[in-house]
Design a protein that fits this description.
The termini are far apart. The longest helix has 22 residues. The protein has six helices and eleven strands. The chain has 223 residues and is α/β, with parallel strands linked by helices. Strand 2, helix 1 and strand 3 form a beta-alpha-beta unit. It is globular, with a radius of gyration of 16 Å. The protein has a single domain, classed as Alpha/Beta hydrolase fold, catalytic domain (Rossmann fold, 3-Layer(aba) Sandwich), CATH 3.40.50.1820.
Length: 223
Amino acid sequence: MQNKQLSLKHLVREPSVKTENPPLLLLLHGVGSNEEDLFGLADYLDDRFFIVSARGPYTLGYGAYAWFHVQFTPNGPVIEPEEAESSRLALLNFIGEVVGAYGLDAQRVYLMGFSQGAIMSMSLTLTAPEKLAGVVAMSGRTPPEVLSKAVPPERLKGLPIFVAHGTADQVLPIHYGRQTRDILSELPVKLTYREYPMAHQISAESLADIAGWLKHKLDGQED
């Protein structure tokens, strides 16, 4: 299928199981990467998904993009909050564009983000949960800037979320994953939290768990 000219550059993988209005799985890459990165995981994910891998709007260099600029300091990451908010709104708009352009099921929109892509996934989760059927956040964090924009907790009731983090992560150390776990544990979501013996990466074990979790969601199964 030819990629549509939408507001964000992206790659698509059509489902091999043909259905009317298939579910969407939107992949969001990390800082300094691009839409090719997570797209390589498509073959390992449920073939009922219409997979879209989007490119962040900010250019850092040749083939390197971001959802917002960030500086890593001894006191933790410092982000450009206006850019993060702009990307949050851009992704909400893009989801609507993708659903309409490719004839997808607006009630079955899933996010799968890594690192900065996981941060954007958490931002959408906490501010627009009704747009989402499930969220996978890998090796990310929940920035305090988005907590002030969070919707009332009851609007998140029952939303399935899978959080994965490496215990040896040196980019976003494990305490960020545990912080996200603690934030979500106070909300009425259906949280699956897993730690893995890995660095800032997606291991075969974590990918297998995530792929199985997504399959169960499409099958309508509980954890």
